[in-house]
Amino acid sequence: RKEVEQDPGPFNVPEGATVAFNCTYSNSASQSFFWYRQDCRKEPKLLMSVYSSGNEDGRFTAQLNRASQYISLLIRDSKLSDSATYLCVVNPDSSYKLIFGSGTRLLVRP
Amino acid sequence: NAGVTQTPKFRILKIGQSMTLQCAQDMNHNYMYWYRQDPGMGLKLIYYSVGAGITDKGEVPNGYNVSRSTTEDFPLRLELAAPSQTSVYFCASSRDAGGTQYFGPGTRLLVL
Q1: Interface with chain A: mutation pick from B100, B107, B109, highest number of A CBs within 10 Å
Q2: Cβ within 8 Å, pair A97-B90
Q3: How many beta-carbon pairs under 8 angstroms link A with B?
Q4: Quick one: how many helices (H) and strands (E) in chain B?
């Protein structure tokens, strides 16, 4: 089993739609969680951290479910500019190490 | 602040050639990392450093070497390039262990 698993997609949605991605992780002792965004042929950039109580940043909401070992990202009112690959990232043990998922590709169409 | 910079942006190597990928950061971060990203795959950690003079292997270190003589610079050396090393290489840095990592723009390497 992969340490971090994501549905590769692509998720193809119209502008204004709400879309959600899930990501599962294998290490129940994992300490911290992130969503990164990667545009085509660009470097990954932090989108948001994921807190135990869930957190929101504008149109983006992240949730953590420790019991089921998954995190989610909800995007409301999708924009064309949201088209990108979203990487689920887990820190398994509070060390230097981040484990990156392979990413979920989102395409927002006009 | 320039953040994390990488050179070159793109390079073609012949099998058996060597090269150094440069990485520098101006954020005074102690932690620096080298990843490779193959198409459709997640980032794989090659080497990392927790400070000047200290480096250690990541998940896929074979065929690579690093050094960290200063806080700012973390070059990656490829010896005897092989087609399997065709990939996109990202350098990253972070202030804290396990904290937000800031990435450079990447180096695309093609080994023929």
Answers
A1: B100
A2: no
A3: 47
A4: 0, 11
Give the distance from residue A46's alpha carbon to the nearest chain B alpha carbon, in angstroms.
7
Please report the sign of the dihedral spanned by the C-alpha atoms of residue B84, residue B85, residue B87, residue B92. positive
3-state SS string for chain B: CCCEEEECCEEEECCCCCEEEEEEECCCCCEEEEEEECCCCCEEEEEEEEECCEEEECCCCCCEEECCCCCCECCEEECCCCHHHCEEEEEEEECCCCCCCEECCCEEEEEC
Neighbour count for residue B30 (Cβ, 10 Å)? 17
Cβ atoms of A56 and A47 closer than 8 Å = no
Nearest to B101 by CA among B65, B53, B66, B58: B58
The reply to whether residue A98 touches residue B42, judged by beta carbons under 8 angstroms, is: no
Local confidence pLDDT in tens for the 112 residues of chain B: 789 999 999 999 999 999 999 999 999 999 999 999 998 788 999 999 999 999 999 999 999 999 999 999 999 999 999 999 999 999 999 998 888 899 999 999 999 9
* Nearest by CB: B41 against A4, A44, A102: A102
Burial class of residue B36, CB neighbours in 10 A (0-12, 13-18, 19+): buried
